[in-house]
Design goal:
By secondary structure, the chain is α/β, with parallel strands linked by helices. The protein has 17 helices and 22 strands. Helix 9 links the parallel strand 14 (252-257) and strand 15 (279-287).
Length: 540
């Protein structure tokens, strides 16, 4: 195979032994040599190959999005997107336009709405009925933890004033007990049961769109957990296999199992890490609570100005049983936990599973990848050191902090000092693995890097950053997008930094994150993306 040499630009390797070099040689899909231009040219002397003059452009290892709802991200491009709607009327106008464009009988789908932007007024079925009265409509809140549906949808799902709240969920009701059209957590399952399935052709098209978007940012690996959206189903693994078989999977994909899959996976002997370097099985995704925006994150004490502490979406005994059962079968867990109570409960369950392992000794299969908590959005200071002590990955999404900070201050108050606590978690020794939670937030990791480094929105708000002591350096944040996810997937001997023998996944950037001003970080993106030394994306 021909050798490719990139030279004449700063190459940030994230290798502590050789952090910045001026040239890198790639052969057989892996890093062959790196260092000064002269040293690399000497290493490839006599080899057939090509060269790429970087002309001063910076290179970093390929990034990983450690938490992305890939099918939902792709499908969102075809649905009613409400993320830009700053008023309820604006949202209803978007919905009306979409409803008019749909064929008769087709469900209206969409999401991204945030009632906090609408003066904290929850929308209702009657609002939705006014613009979409003649077809079922299902609109997912920005965080994916509540649905806004219309009267036809409620009727199809059999939801009425007599319908009890399911365990781990809530049907919002008016003063007369009539459902308003807002469904929280497990109550969303009542609608999911009647939503028509999405066809394979549409799913594959959506995945292709999302995969291309990932490459356009320099993302070369993805961690794909199931979520609360109807698009996040068990078909994702099968669809990615279809793309892989057809040579259409250009991004490495780690796919997580949903709770109903555990028994079948254990019966088949499946373990975390099964697969190849392109498509592998991750851990078991579980949910311990809801979200901040839906006020369903489970807290240790009441929300500010409220008389409730959120929703536990699973009983503690069941959480402990599932974590212990999965780990005993060689399957790691990735548990969604937002509130400080939920994070404590997850850590307790993982600690019990680790005690089982110590007691069993060699009777347990080794875990190919660590257990992890998804989001860790607010944690009690007494629990903060436990992630490092238990070897639990902090899988976090920086844009959540800058999107949610005003809401966190309003609903969590002083507890926000330990919200999105990247600095404290890193200082404690925990491994950070950063992602987007797209389409809840933008998939763009450079916007996430900016949030991690500044704790500000791109506008510069708030001045000095929100709880600035939790900021990271550019190097620390980039490692959380590169090396941290590789540790989380058990692949840090193959990727996450650039060194001889490592996979040649790398990105040529339009700017230099180490030299650009922090305010300019969101404007950086990929000029060229390479996977195993093959050019898979080039910006026009």
């Amino acid at each position: 195979m021909a050798t490719l040499v990139l030279y004449n630009g700063p190459i940030y390797t994230l290798d502590l032994g050789q952090p910045v070099v001026r040239a890198i040689a790639i052969r057989d899909g892996r890093v062959f040599a790196l260092g000064s231009e002269g040293r690399v040219q000497a290493a490839v002397a006599g080899m057939r190959g090509e060269t790429l003059n970087l002309r001063g452009r910076a290179v970093v290892p390929g990034l990983t999005d450690a938490h992305v709802h890939l099918p939902w991200q792709g499908l969102a491009t075809y649905e009613a997107r409400l993320g830009t709607a700053t008023t309820l009327d604006a949202a209803l106008a978007i919905i009306a336009d979409r409803a008019r464009a749909l064929p008769s009988g087709v469900w209206l789908r969409g999401g991204g709405w945030n009632h906090v932007d609408w003066g904290r007024r929850w929308p209702t079925r009657t609002d939705l009925d006014a613009v979409c009265p003649d077809r079922p409509a299902i609109l997912t809140r920005k965080d994916g933890h509540s649905y806004w549906v219309n009267s036809p949808t409620l009727a199809l799902a059999g939801i009425s004033a007599d319908t009890p709240d399911p365990a781990g969920g809530q049907i919002q009701r008016d003063r007369d007990g009539v459902p308003t059209g807002i469904l929280f957590e497990a109550a969303m399952d009542l609608v999911r049961a009647v939503v028509p399935p999405i066809g394979e052709a549409e799913r594959l098209a959506a995945l292709r769109v999302a995969l291309h978007e990932a490459l356009s940012y320099g993302i070369t690996s993805l961690h794909i957990p199931p979520g609360t959206n109807h698009a996040d189903g068990p078909e994702t693994l099968r669809d990615l296999q279809t793309l892989r078989a057809g040579g259409e999977l250009p991004v490495r994909s780690l796919v997580f199992l949903a709770q109903p899959d555990l028994e079948r996976a254990l019966a088949l002997g499946l373990r975390s890490g099964v697969g190849d370097r392109w498509l592998r099985i991750g851990g078991l995704k579980l949910f311990a609570d809801g979200s901040l925006g839906s006020e369903s994150a489970e807290m240790l004490s009441h929300y500010e100005g409220r008389r409730h502490m959120g929703i536990a979406t699973i009983e503690q005994a069941e959480l402990e049983r599932l974590v212990r059962q999965a780990n005993a079968g060689g399957i790691s867990v990735a548990v969604h936990a937002i509130g400080d109570a939920a994070n404590r409960k997850v850590l307790d369950a993982i600690e019990l599973a680790q005690a089982d392992r110590r007691q069993a000794g060699e009777g347990y299969p080794a875990l190919a990848m660590p257990n992890r908590i998804e989001h860790v959005q607010v944690i009690h200071p007494k629990d903060l050191p436990r992630l490092a002590q238990l070897g639990v990955i902090a899988s976090m999404q920086p844009l959540h902090a800058t999107s949610d900070m005003d809401m966190a201050d309003a609903l969590w108050g002083a507890r926000s000092a330990y919200a999105y606590a990247w600095g404290s978690l890193k200082e404690s020794g925990a491994t950070l693995a950063f992602g987007s939670d797209a389409p809840v937030e933008s998939m763009n990791p450079w916007r996430g890097l900016h949030a991690a480094v500044t704790r500000q929105r791109p506008s510069g708000y708030p001045e000095g950053g929100w709880y600035p002591e939790q900021r990271l350096s550019v190097d620390e944040a980039l490692r959380a997008y590169c090396l941290g996810p590789a540790i989380a997937s058990g692949e840090d001997r193959e990727k996450g930094y650039l060194a001889p023998g490592m996979l040649a996944d790398l990105v040529v950037l339009t700017g230099d994150p180490f030299r650009n001003a922090p305010a300019d970080l969101p404007a950086i993106t990929a000029a060229m993306t390479f996977v195993e030394g093959k050019l898979v994306f080039e910006r026009a």
